[in-house]
Fold this sequence. Notes:
Elements: E1 8-12, H1 20-30, E2 34-39, H2 42-54, E3 59-62, H3 68-82, E4 87-90, H4 109-130, E5 138-144, H5 156-176, E6 181-188, H6 202-212, H7 221-232, E7 243-246
Parallel strand pairs: 1-2, 1-4, 2-3, 4-5, 5-6, 6-7
The structure holds nicotinamide-adenine-dinucleotide (NAD).
Nicotinamide-adenine-dinucleotide is lined by residues 13-15, 19-21, 40, 44, 63-66, 91-94, 118, 143-145, 188, 190-191, 193-196.
Amino acid sequence: MGLMTGKRGIIFGVANDKSIAWGVAQQLHAAGAELAFTYLNEALEKRVRPLAESLDAKIILPCDVQNEEEMVAVFAELEKQWGKIDFVVHAIAFANREDLKNPFSQTSREGFRLALDVSAYSLVSMTRCALPVMKQGGSIVTMTYLGAVRSVPAYNVMGVAKAALESSVRYLAAELGEKGIRVNAVSAGPIKTLAASGVANFKEKMRIMEERAPLKRLVDQEEVGKSTLYLLSDLASGVTGEIHYVDGGFSTAAG
Ligand code: NAD
């Protein structure tokens, strides 16, 4: 019996085998969970489908989180095929590349709206769609970054979006606790992924983490996956509204 045997859930945010969501998926599968996946568009479907199938996934659906109809359709399909779900993984973020390069004060209204919509509001709309299918409680985990609570060079509008995301975690947790639904975030240290390639000076962020984090090294997708597994499992039955750092202790160390 695995930690997640008998549990079913969906993972949003696999783009390729470097994605944090893929590290999470592998841990959940190894622990016995049954998984469904979404992909952003047809180009990514080619990468995501074989990965999902390698973990025995049968439900693999398109979902652009800016498209409410697609999101509704995803959860309707889960209800049709499974009746209920136990967990949701939200590992999605987007900002225009120029907004991660230009000075923060130059962020356009549209760039601000886009980053907040895709990276923060999507957790709210996803949770709303998941609620009717989480019939016996459940656990929702999203991915955040230190730039939510500190000004990290060049993280810019994505930091503001992560601040909104972390606050949304607390409000959703407060609202849904009485339904037995827990909502938490994992705050990961810098990891080389597709999304990370859009952040200027990313190599420098990795170097600083290796130098200053108490563990004196980077963390990887597997470690984020293991903490996410914990938060999704009954081991974390008393944990909600938390921002759980997986960054080698970096956020706790001075200088
Ligand atoms: P990634 O590029 O592998 O994943 C980002 C995902 O977001 C992709 O699957 C992409 O398809 C999806 N996405 C973007 N716009 C979307 C939309 N409109 N609708 C649906 N999906 C959309 O990169 P990642 O680093 O694995 O990112 C996953 C999460 O982890 C993000 O929230 C990111 O901010 C967070 N995070 C990453 C790091 C890091 O250093 N890589 C650190 C902390 C937190």
